[in-house]
Amino acid sequence: MPQTSRRDFLKTTTLAAAGTSLPFWFSTNTAMAQASSSPNERLTVGCIGTGSRWNAVGPAAFKFANCVAVADVDANHAEAGKKKVQDIHKKDGRPTQVDVYEDYQKILDRDDIDIVTIVTPDHWHSKIAIEAMQAGKDVYCEKPLTLTIHEGKQIIKVLEETNRVFQVGTQQRTEMGQRFLTAIAMIRDGRIGDVKKVTCNIGGSSDSGAIPVADVPQGLNWEKWLGQAPLVDFRFKPGGRWGNSRCHYEFRWWYEYSGGKMTDWGAHHVDIAQWAIDQNGPGQGPVSVEPIMSVHPVPFVDGMPQMDDRYNAATAFDVKVIFKNGVEMHIVNNSPDGNGILFEGTKGRFHVSRSRIKGKPYEDLEENPLPEDAIAQVYGGKQPTSHMQNFFDCVQSREKPISDVWTHHSAMTTCHLANIAIRLDQTLEWDTESQNVTNNSTAQQMQQREQRKGYEINVPV
């Protein structure tokens, strides 16, 4: 299908979706038809960021679209990404021409690219996503979507202005054996009565010890990798999963680039918990965030780390969050049930993780199963699919994906507030209507960050 015809098709389905209610099976059929179409009829995707996580995200997207370009500030990642695309395309008899860029803007400038995947360090997500939507691309972006609360407001503003389709990579909403969907369906069906307390065990961040200054690896544009963050020395020492460093996988443990486990796993479990207790819509969310306990590997003054040679995100914490509907949530790094979510209600309790659900309310499903359509109703009236298929379904139908920006921003607001609270060691009060901290001026300022010149996100909200 010529590019103009494909774009005309998308435009037509956008108008149709705006004027009618599509049956639940429409989007699934269209995406599967797209996946099985001839190579030249598929949508095209450009991949921004081709590091470790992309090795799962990229191939999942290639089931539905042809990749024509990759971009990464690490030339080694970019070349490896190109080879992976070519290997996959070659097996399917698809075109193997893949352009390689250091600058992601070159992907956004191409009119022949319909969709972008963004699998970069967290501090790059918002700027690239905003510019991609402004360039007319639909977006699949890994979690956590934002570095700050303010960035979430900026993304929502641009999304509403551009009407793009945007899926966040929180795969627990779709996959993991549908355990989390089952958990939400149990709560909706009243299996534990009224939910009173939720505990999200997300684990703690790593403690690296001192990391020495090191030479920048060949092929890595360190200045570009830093982006909006302050210009600092590259640091590295052997250890950890990829070596203790300021870069690549280990960026997660630095507040300059991410939010530690609070945003890394909080983006999954806090998201599911707020979905389950109906606290991720407009005017909903936390009203207070209290740091019961926290441990950081470095000292903090006014919320800022005082050492720059080691990881600084919290290694241990217990944050108490009270939501507008009165439900109490604890975000912890450790609990007796292990990683996952514990729901406690007036009629019982159960724990859900990626590997299992345990508790009497779940055991009772054997004799008293959920209604036949219970999980589909949680999933917006549709039958659950893969996370990537849901995205491509929605690219065709122009419906809202299962992991939408609005609910993700709500969950990330809770996680960002929890991080601000433990960095300041102060209880924060939050106004769900104005979306602002009301009792602490320093915390108000920490809702956004100064961005290095040349890397600003220029979207007033």
Automatic annotation (TrEMBL):
It is an enzyme of class 1 (oxidoreductase). GO terms for molecular function: glucose-fructose oxidoreductase activity; nucleotide binding. Residues 437-461 are annotated as: Disordered. Gene3D superfamilies: Dihydrodipicolinate Reductase, domain 2, NAD(P)-binding Rossmann-like Domain. Residues 45-169 form the Gfo/Idh/MocA-like oxidoreductase N-terminal domain. Residues 437-448 have a biased composition (Polar residues). Residues 211-456 form the Gfo/Idh/MocA-like oxidoreductase bacterial type C-terminal domain. It comes from the Bacteria. PROSITE patterns: TAT. Keywords: Oxidoreductase, Signal. The keyword Repeat does not apply. Its EC number is 1.1.99.28. Residues 1-33 form the signal peptide. The keyword Signal applies. This is Glucose--fructose oxidoreductase.
